[in-house]
Design brief:
This protein is mostly helical. It contains four helices and two strands. The protein has a two-stranded parallel sheet with strand order 1-2. The N and C termini lie far apart (36 Å). The relative contact order is 0.16.
Length: 97
């Protein structure tokens, strides 16, 4: 098992133990670390990396629609991400998907 996978496992365990991974209060998508994003079963390591790279290159997400600029993110994926993450100051994502 490579080091990234081991670290991701530790991140998941830590989030579950603290109750923040799937708590009622959503984490901020713009401040979540790559490990925190990767720990979410709806995101995973590859998409977490792409989300963080987008934030580093373009800046924080200002809308859920902007998430579609990240390769691999569709309306359905945004709805899944929105189960545990929010964009602070932006209403929850609502789609007919």
């Amino acid at each position: 098992m490579d080091i990234k996978r081991i670290l991701a496992c530790f991140a998941v365990a830590a989030l579950c133990l603290t109750g923040t991974a799937f708590a009622a209060e959503k984490a901020n998508l713009n401040s979540a670390t790559e490990d925190e994003l990767a720990a979410d079963p709806n995101i995973g390591a590859d998409l977490a990396r792409k989300i963080v790279e987008y934030r580093e290159n373009v800046g924080d997400f200002a809308s859920y629609e902007e998430l579609k600029e990240v390769e691999g993110i569709t309306d359905t994926k945004i709805k899944e991400i929105n189960e545990h993450f929010q964009i602070e100051g932006v209403a929850s994502f609502d789609c007919n998907c």
